[in-house]
Amino acid sequence: MKSLGWKTLVTTAAVASLSGLALTAVPSQAASPGAGARQVHTTASNSQQAHAALSPRQLAALPLTNRHLTAHETANLAVVLRDYHVAEGKSLDVNTFVNSFAKDGVFNDMVPGQAYRGKALGDVLPYMANLFPDVHRELKRITVSGDVISIELSIQGTFEGPLQSPAGTVKPNGARIDVPTADFWYLHNGKVEQFNCYVGYSTMYAQMGVNFDWASAVAKG
């Protein structure tokens, strides 16, 4: 099954209305990422609205495992696809990502066992974009079941930002990454209540030239 890149999908996915679902863009302002992360700015004005329309033709272009989605499921999928779009290096929008979560919503980075809630949700996207300014998520397989969306994907990008490690700073080397990932989204009333993300960190670090030998990697710098 062919995967779908965001350059193709997002251009066509925000052109019509879908059962009253409207995604409102946020005003341009600087985000407040954690120490060491680059600043991120949104680019939309107050008056702009992006209507998350997923027409039958657009849905047909997605790598869906089940194409008989209800209107409710399609609306949930639109929310998740929007979050992937605003996580892209070229269209980073921290506020839109954070606002897609419920008040008590949580992002779980499952492999290292880290959880982000509230304002801390704003640290997630800048961290990845700091390491990989061109970060892109290639969606390979999407399963929608009511309020649960499961996605097989790969995180791609170029290692162009410093990585802080237990042994010191690993300097960027321009290496390309293509990391197997699995995401599980749990929504309620159009908001993300829980997002569990499983990233193949061992593969990612190996592609960055780390191989878990932090001291050696720092020495190479």
UniProtKB/TrEMBL annotation:
Keyword rRNA processing: no
Keyword Repeat tagged: no
The organism's place on the tree of life at top rank: Bacteria
Pfam family, one: SnoaL_2
Region (Disordered): 32-52
Record keywords: Signal
TM helices/strands, residue ranges: none
InterPro entries: NTF2-like_dom_sf, SnoaL-like
Leader sequence segment: 1-30
Annotated ranges, domain SnoaL-like: 93-192
Biased composition range(s): Polar residues: 40-50
Protein name in UniProt: Nuclear transport factor 2 family protein
Annotated organism of origin: Streptacidiphilus alkalitolerans
